[in-house]
């Protein structure tokens, strides 16, 4: 990893967290699409770059499809873990030119630029979005220990509270009679 990318990674930790899960999902699919499109562009001229681009695009789209956020389909991975995988994908995309042997060629620049873009997106993303209750955000992921969604648990809690109130009222009526 170049010194520039190391500096960018350091700066990413100090960036304001302004991207919510929806914006992050859109950008994830843009990044995945750019990798897949560039794979098609690279195919005739540089097969190693094309394969690398398809690998990175496939990994990015798989990460998005498996995440529990607005862009996810299968929702088996938390948003916070998605951010951790994104960090790994940054390393993958920046290492592919060297790993596949086209580091000094023009196609290798695309991977460096993509890694910088991904680092910026990750740096600007609030991966604690669903965990931070102070912003009034509801957690929509299933509770890990019960398998019940947070919204369903809230409804159940409201029903339990109403049931207790009704029980208390009926007890008061019986006591007064």
Question: In a nutshell, what does this entry contain?
Answer:
This protein has helices at residues 3-12, 21-42, 47-65, 79-100, 106-124, 150-176. It is mainly alpha-helical and 177 residues long.
Descriptive account of the structure:
This protein is mostly helical. The chain has 2 domains: 3-140, no CATH class; 142-177. Helices cover 67% and strands 0% of the residues. The longest helix has 27 residues, at 150-176. The protein starts with a helix and ends with a helix. Residues 135-148 have low confidence and may be disordered.
Any chance you could write out the topology, listing elements then pairs?
Elements: H1 3-12, H2 21-42, H3 47-65, H4 79-100, H5 106-124, H6 150-176
Helix pairs in contact: 1-5, 2-3, 2-5, 3-4, 4-5
List keywords for this structure.
177 residues, mainly alpha, 6 helices
Task: Note the beta-strand portion.
Answer: under 5%
- Uncertain segments are 135-148
**Terminal residue distance:** 80 Å
Mean pLDDT score: 81
**How many discrete domains?**
2
Structural class: mainly alpha
Total count of helical runs of at least 4 residues = 6
Q: Please state the CA-atom Rg, rounded to the nearest Å.
A: 23 Å
Question: What is the chain-wise order of helices and strands?
Answer: HHHHHH
**Number of beta-strand segments:** 0
Regarding quaternary structure, what we see is single chain
Helix amount, in percent? 55-70%
The general outline is: globular
**Largest sheet, strands/sense/barrel:** none
